[in-house]
Specification:
Layout (H helix, E strand, L loop, with lengths): L9 H8 L11 H22 L6 H4 L2
GO biological process, one term: regulation of DNA-templated transcription
Organism: Halorubrum kocurii JCM 14978
Pfam family, one: RHH_1
């Protein structure tokens, strides 16, 4: 899996860390960042579909 480096403000990183670890929703920071990216991309795809900017599976079959 490729590695990516990003700069993140400390406040955002602190918020992220609250959700990571034994008591958190994510095993580690990488897991949390991947989940966030997936969720964001899904939301952007939904917005594009609503605005007719991408074809859905249904429209492709017609």
């Amino acid at each position: 899996m490729p590695k990516v480096s990003v700069e993140i403000p400390q406040e955002l990183l602190d918020d992220l860390d609250e959700h990571v670890g034994d008591e958190g929703k994510f095993v580690n920071r990488s897991d949390a960042v991947r989940a966030s990216i997936r969720k964001t991309l899904d939301m952007l795809d939904d917005i594009d579909r609503r605005h007719g900017r991408v074809e859905t599976d249904e429209s492709e079959s017609h």
